[in-house]
């Protein structure tokens, strides 16, 4: 590793609506190093990267790239400098070939004609240089996700990138595919390309990174060299020791109420397997895990939204039909992860969104009882404290927290037995979070059972009575007694059982 | 986010359409003094509108779902042809009228059913399948009429549909109003209508809320096919003849009437009242062109240019007036930022 500094971000500041998100953050990357950037959700990683790639303007500080101060005002400024990003959601055009995708926007022309041959040669040269096993003429949609990622990397390299940012690159890869990616990263390093590696997967970070920066609440908490990196220290730095203690959960327990929902050996090939657990009446069961662990997929299958390959789900001892409509009649509800695309109809009012799940009681002979509909809408707006206090407002015009309350209202207005809530507070401000937690707690108090999938550890510890940790499509462990901390969950998500967790297992 | 403000904006954007219509009518009144603004001419406009009017009331269903139905003109022609052929075959008997009309309507329902099944179960884009069936059904109309004009002046019961009067009001207008009222009730007062708007606004959210979207889609295309057939039968009665080209170009006029009337081609937005307004505008423009003496060869061109201008004007005003939309955009963006900020 050379010791030349490639990127230096000095005292970067950023505020959103007056809230500081980055507070004088320093961050630097040397040529040919893999630098891991870690931190919990909301720590400021994403904001820092977006400033570096020209998506957000910075409010203060300097960026020095390759020895010169630079001003990155948009994405193409970043590309010109040689800063490439591999996004979580890949940005390739599926119907074009590898060559066409790589050369997109920089096609070689002569007299207005595209020089396919020259472009192809250029891409082949690039593939050979890095020794990537990619066929230049393959159509991108026929490639696996891992191969597509390689194409993205090639695209970044063809733009003469000196720095490539990888954001959770292994989230949707199998372990074999991840290995291949790690090899590519090694090769890139040898060629002097620097990499900013963002991942929640601790084991990958230990394995790959030369240095590691930990962000917490918009502040650089630590800069560690390879030999200083140690799993539990990093986790402690990410969470903050004091906080970890104060948000520890003391009252994990198995509810003594009867079992409501029983899942046995649920499997969807290639996605998850051996999923078995029980949910008691009036219980809040947390589901922890990293992005891509299969939590959302399991929930959708239990709910009947996606087909399964094998296994059974029973409610009160009776096997569930594989139909959303029938499950809803039996008392199921789902608050989906992707609120905007799956949770509500944005153009329709709160009242009509709530009514959508309630026409069995709000209509007679196919005709809607409008007065009843209105009364129910108003009742739910009042009960959940939706602001503004008007059930006629389109849900699309509400704030994130109030949108989530409107989605919850769709189910709370029914006689609910089991409610599955996927990432209840994603993208919701702190005040509204608290209200949502109170709503979830009251659902359980009223006798319904709740499954809460969450990536927010504080949330899991605060709300759940038991926590199941999923990892790579399987249940890794369950915390059902005693005291656990964020650290225990984070470790388990990465496949490490802490002492507490081991005790817990027995 | 003041609710009063939202209502105000809604009223503003609604009256926009009224203004456009009034301006067009004013221009025509000035250009053709004593001809355009007469009771006789208004009646003639209403008569021609009744056909589009019947069609838009059904075709709005697939549009609200974010789909489309390009086959309505062909379905109208085929249904009209079927009815007339039956009547002629039955020697102009009343039973022939009943069989012909019911059979024609059934033909529309059948085509709609096929559309609905193909769109919902096989995920074929509505644009594609209804464009294909436009040609297929047009072919059926040609086969039924053997590419001839089939006159049908009798019996009185059939002529009444398009040419009769009830309490002095043309019967076709009564049919249009009846269908408009039924459609209005269906869309606004029934679970089916609520679900049409909801599925058009967000199909996946509806599926996860237990809405049977496939059923909704199939019923919507059936409605569209039914009203197209109804319009075609009334048209045949009005013209006292069946001809395969009877409703050529109506697909476009119906679509423009809907879009001018405020329906979004993305689905989820639109109303019967708006759709009838749109049909009115299309009717007034056609009538005005004829009065001014533009030969029919140019009608299509001028109509479409005027319509594009009207839609562009409407979109422009809506955009300009939408302090709401703008703040909404930033609002969404802000939330998106917050969400992305939390995802890393």
Automatic annotation (TrEMBL), chain A:
<keyword id="KW-0547">Nucleotide-binding</keyword>
<keyword id="KW-0067">ATP-binding</keyword>
<dbReference type="Pfam" id="PF00005">
    <property type="entry name" value="ABC_tran"/>
</dbReference>
<keyword id="KW-1278">Translocase</keyword>
<dbReference type="GO" id="GO:0005886">
    <property type="term" value="C:plasma membrane"/>
</dbReference>
<protein>
    <submittedName>
        <fullName>Monosaccharide ABC transporter ATP-binding protein (CUT2 family)</fullName>
    </submittedName>
</protein>
<dbReference type="InterPro" id="IPR027417">
    <property type="entry name" value="P-loop_NTPase"/>
</dbReference>
<dbReference type="InterPro" id="IPR017871">
    <property type="entry name" value="ABC_transporter-like_CS"/>
</dbReference>
<feature type="domain" description="ABC transporter">
    <location>
        <begin position="252"/>
        <end position="497"/>
    </location>
</feature>
<dbReference type="InterPro" id="IPR003439">
    <property type="entry name" value="ABC_transporter-like_ATP-bd"/>
</dbReference>
<keyword id="KW-0677">Repeat</keyword>
<dbReference type="InterPro" id="IPR003593">
    <property type="entry name" value="AAA+_ATPase"/>
</dbReference>
<dbReference type="GO" id="GO:0005524">
    <property type="term" value="F:ATP binding"/>
</dbReference>
<keyword id="KW-0762">Sugar transport</keyword>
<keyword id="KW-1003">Cell membrane</keyword>
<dbReference type="InterPro" id="IPR050107">
    <property type="entry name" value="ABC_carbohydrate_import_ATPase"/>
</dbReference>
<dbReference type="GO" id="GO:0016887">
    <property type="term" value="F:ATP hydrolysis activity"/>
</dbReference>
<keyword id="KW-0472">Membrane</keyword>
<feature type="domain" description="ABC transporter">
    <location>
        <begin position="7"/>
        <end position="242"/>
    </location>
</feature>
<keyword id="KW-0813">Transport</keyword>
Automatic annotation (TrEMBL), chain B:
<keyword id="KW-1003">Cell membrane</keyword>
<dbReference type="GO" id="GO:0005886">
    <property type="term" value="C:plasma membrane"/>
</dbReference>
<feature type="transmembrane region" description="Helical">
    <location>
        <begin position="166"/>
        <end position="187"/>
    </location>
</feature>
<keyword id="KW-0813">Transport</keyword>
<feature type="transmembrane region" description="Helical">
    <location>
        <begin position="124"/>
        <end position="145"/>
    </location>
</feature>
<dbReference type="GO" id="GO:0022857">
    <property type="term" value="F:transmembrane transporter activity"/>
</dbReference>
<feature type="transmembrane region" description="Helical">
    <location>
        <begin position="70"/>
        <end position="88"/>
    </location>
</feature>
<keyword id="KW-0997">Cell inner membrane</keyword>
<feature type="transmembrane region" description="Helical">
    <location>
        <begin position="216"/>
        <end position="236"/>
    </location>
</feature>
<feature type="transmembrane region" description="Helical">
    <location>
        <begin position="300"/>
        <end position="317"/>
    </location>
</feature>
<feature type="transmembrane region" description="Helical">
    <location>
        <begin position="95"/>
        <end position="118"/>
    </location>
</feature>
<dbReference type="InterPro" id="IPR001851">
    <property type="entry name" value="ABC_transp_permease"/>
</dbReference>
<feature type="transmembrane region" description="Helical">
    <location>
        <begin position="18"/>
        <end position="38"/>
    </location>
</feature>
<feature type="transmembrane region" description="Helical">
    <location>
        <begin position="45"/>
        <end position="64"/>
    </location>
</feature>
<feature type="transmembrane region" description="Helical">
    <location>
        <begin position="257"/>
        <end position="280"/>
    </location>
</feature>
<keyword id="KW-0472">Membrane</keyword>
<dbReference type="Pfam" id="PF02653">
    <property type="entry name" value="BPD_transp_2"/>
</dbReference>
<protein>
    <submittedName>
        <fullName>ABC transporter permease</fullName>
    </submittedName>
</protein>
<keyword id="KW-1133">Transmembrane helix</keyword>
<keyword id="KW-0812">Transmembrane</keyword>
